[in-house]
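Suppose a colleague, Dr. K., hands you the sequence of a protein chain of 285 amino acids and asks what its three-dimensional shape might be. Before reaching for any lab equipment, you can write down a predicted structure in token form. Begin with the sequence itself:
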Amino acid sequence: MSLPLLPVPGYTDFSLRKGGAPFRTGSPFDTQMLAQFRLTGDVSPLFPYINAVADSSSLLEKPRFIRFVLDGVCCGLYPDHGIAGAFASRDQALGFLDRLLAFLNDLGRRQDELQPNYKSWNPVPVLDIFRLLPRTNCRSCGYPSCLAFAAALSRQRTSPRRCPGFSSPISTQAVYPVHDKFGNLLSTVTLELDLSPPGRRPAAAEPSSPKKVAAQRDDYLAAPLTGRELEVLRLLVQGATNGEISSSLQISRHTVKSHVIHIFNKLGVNDRTQAAVRALQQELV
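The predicted structure, expressed as tokens, is then:
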């Protein structure tokens, strides 16, 4: 079934201003110009198709906006206006706007051949992500600091898997699209995904060896606890401070702090009380 053709309007209120390419400051394009224009209709129905085919596309829901690169030019479209750049002259900018409208018209004609991409980007504040990190600046992720990694993750330029100490999620969700008969997005349905292990612990029909029991317990963790981390955890459950743990195990306070951070990350908790509760629940001590 053919989809209804999405109308692509023209543009009005064209203007140029000095400045760099969109969404970038202090760039080599500061001497060039940014084009601004108003559209004569709503182009937001085309955003999922742009998101499916354009380079470096990012779709935002609030506000409704899409950023992408076309022929090496960075573009940003709202439903009824847009920006693009950077350009060296008025003629270059006008020529590109003709190219942009041709691109949008082509998508409108080919929408029944294309699979729209409704995935949107909802940036998380950098400091919120930073709070999830071990803040050791270990550089295992390839970035010079935990803050730099958090900034890159906020812009979806890296993955949480790159950080060995990233907190484990307590839940995750999958968002599924609901379409009409023409393939237009009507709504979404969000389902909570079960992160628990696929199996359950077998009933204790017979005594298990200590190694086997430890392996079963480790299956419930993001990563197994080392022998030293288990020693620290036992003292932590007893209410010992870092200084007391340091004296008991004859290790430095800095080492104790490092062990505690790793324990928190592996147990998926944020403080000592949660760690103690999780340890008792999973029979780790």
